[in-house]
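Problem 12. The chain below contains 462 residues. Write out its predicted structure in token notation.
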Amino acid sequence: MTTYLLESALSLLLLLGFYQLFLENQPIHRLKRVYLLGTLGVAFVAPLLTIEVPVPQPITPPSAVALFLPAENVPGQTTVVTEVTAAPVTYWLWLYAAGTLLMLVRFARNLYQIAAQVRRYAPQPFRGVWLVPLPTDVLPHTFLRYLFVSKAALEQGTLEPELLTHELAHIRQRHSLDVLLIELVLCFGWFNPLLIWLKRAMQRNHEFLADEAVNAAFGNVPGYQHLLLTKLTRATTLPALVSTLTFQTTKQRLLMMTKHASPARTWFAGGTIALVFGIATLLVTTTASTPASSTDPVGQRGDLPAKTTDEGLDLSRLPQFPPATNRQIAEVERWFSQVMVAVPDSSAPDKWVRRKYADLTQNEKRYVVCPLPERPKAISPVYLNDYKNKAKYDPIHVDGQEVKDFAANKLTADDIAFYQLSPYGEGANEKTAVFLYTRAGFEVYKKRQEANPLVFVKVTKW
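Solution.
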């Protein structure tokens, strides 16, 4: 989750930075609206995407860590691979939940205030929208298809047509939907200041779009600019979700009215935006390496076929490392729901009990992995001779049986069909356990692995 949040914030920062530097002061407001909405989509969706890139399988020297220990380590039970410590429970989740709850309450309160005004003051049809006359002296503002105005100004006929056209543009262009979307996202991403930056950029662009509609309808830019300046002294407290005249960026709005966009500039900006979106997506998209065939001089396991069962099961979709995702859990459940898995006994952590995969808890299922089927791999005579150094390699197992005096063993490299290494200890006490299999022993090992394809990775704390 931390990686996802960092990648999402990075894409937001890049896209908003590009907008601030190159797009905000350009009179291409419709395209800018698409860009800002696209920024929100890219920031939240791109980190979830995965691009598979085929790469050659690396050649791993025999001293590398074995992914899975052999089944003989737990006789009659499923293999226990390693121990990982579960993340300690922190209070960050409670803090996030409290902040999210407060933001949702604020969001609901704003909606309630608007709905209460609509219920209290009878709306009237007006140019395809609903006009809501308020008893207070407020500036015109809108939400969805409701246009809120001062009842006194309406009765006296002092509502400027330019202001009404401005607010009608907010309604007809559905700016409230943008505001609702970003406000809802803020309820869950309130800790990210970049979302506030995005919200303000959206609101400024909404004003540019509404100003553009006014000038297209009246064609009197100086007169409209003067009208806006006369309204600067009027301050009104309104719900956060409405669209209304804002004066924090009045200077920027006045300057924007004097600019015009050529078709060539618009097309160029559109192409640039598509390129920027593509670059931002690639930067935060996860790249998965798909093994490709390669030559292995020391006989290490090369690429494995994706399909490894007669039924056509694609093992690449199953978890090879914990914790498994919900999608992977569902796939394992589909194929191996009745397979027995050895898990720690909750009443006696040092003991193991056998249970069906389908009977495990969701959290336990996250630590069940599906090791890929092994293929024969030869060993170099040089490395086999190194394993006779008991100070570095101990214990040594051959076909599942520990060999106390491996230095006196007569096995040759040609006798070994498969091997695994498992380092343990730290510093000066570090050693490596070696598991060697002859051809006959490897066939027995493969059959055991195929009979019970699930491996539980033990955790020290739930």
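Discussion. Residues 118 and 132 are 7 Å apart (CA to CA). Students who got a different answer should revisit the alignment rule from Section 12.3.
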